[in-house]
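hiii, so i know i said id send this last week but things got crazy w the move. better late than never?? heres the sequnce for the chain we talked about at the cafe, plus the structure i predicted for it. fair warning i was half asleep when i ran it
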Amino acid sequence: MSNHVYKSLELTGSSPTGIEDAVQVAIAKAHETVRNIQWFTVTETRGHVVDGKVAHWQVTLKIGFTLE
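okay and structure toks below
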């Protein structure tokens, strides 16, 4: 296995559907401009409540990608 150097970015994805969808949205958007994404870590989860129900999820994550 060769040595890798990683850089990380912090992103926040949002979704009215759920936490996993918010993560997928953030990673898919980052993938449009960032190459070699290798991992992610969820650092914060929060939501918006309307009329006593969860209306929207926000998930902050760090993604790591290898430098070329």
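btw The chain has a mean pLDDT of 95. thought thatd interest u
miss u guys!!
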